């Protein structure tokens, strides 16, 4: 989420006692705040467009930024803010950057009042629903930013400096780009090489080897897996690419498009049954259903479990615990091969943009918000982010001359090994409530806690997806 981040980074949503999951709070907030209206009469006047000011920023206008304070913190954004003030010294003292873990509740009154910030890092547990924001015309099209010259090379547009797929992720069925994903996240199964070496093992490339390693670890009093049971929508970070590996990318495309019976594909059933076997054989750390993301990461970093599904932000988010074991040697693994009939090769992984930034349509200084993003996408700011938080940015390259920490170096290797076999599910972007509360908490969490079988979970999820597809109040998107 990194975003999400998110993915504190992910949900404060409480598990419903019954499995009829309540509506996501963000939806009610957005239906209240996304009510159209004027663009605001107090927008600042544009400045003079020039080579140094391609977005025509008003050089003396204030800038209002709200950052999600999660796994990446906010220092990287404050450093970019300093670069902004250097570029526009007349704005010194007028640039405000606030950070919070509660994006929705912090910004709800401001959206309702028609005075949102100029730039928002819309991530974390209280992430606002992008589908609703787009459908209700609450965002500024970022095409002007993408077509502006990059900071480092005026002969290159910003869009031409981004990693493949980043621009498309911010689009919702049209040419407009509503979101700029700043981080570039590699999702998968994260582990310590040294902890595996203690068991004379390497990362298991087949599921049979995964089960055998978990059995070996169990005899030593170590769990095979843990996960944040309070926020079980972390499970898809490794489960979705596992499904794609088994059945091909077409399975994820049908799921994203809310097609009938998409969740009843044999690849989904096979993947669910494999994960359920981890529970059935006692390979999941006891108590995991009650852990949040930080607690599960702490247990994993302390060596109580070998594997955890997560994103590349985990290296920064768990840095203090990992530092206690200097030989930890963090790494990420792609989904293990279930069988020789898998449709995609070993190495298939999920990697995509993370930490989504938006410029509200009613922002007073939209040009300033986009300019700060342009600065953040410079090589200087990008490398600053990489060094601070051990995560890549959406700037394609930018790592030259940097000594990458183990986890990030492993993520780079994973990307190279994957080649073209990189998947990018869109369900979590298009239908936040469906992904987090319903699929995550309402089904996957129940299955991995042993309260629901794979078949029951699939049936429940298919109904959730069907209900979303049939809900006329939810805007639909297609791949």
TrEMBL record:
The keyword Nucleus does not apply. Keywords: Signal, Transport. Coiled coil: none annotated. InterPro entries: Bact_solute-bd_prot1, Chitin_NgcE, SBP, TAT_signal. Belongs to the bacterial solute-binding protein 1 family. GO terms for cellular component: cell envelope. This is Carbohydrate ABC transporter, N-acetylglucosamine/diacetylchitobiose-binding protein. The gene is ngcE.
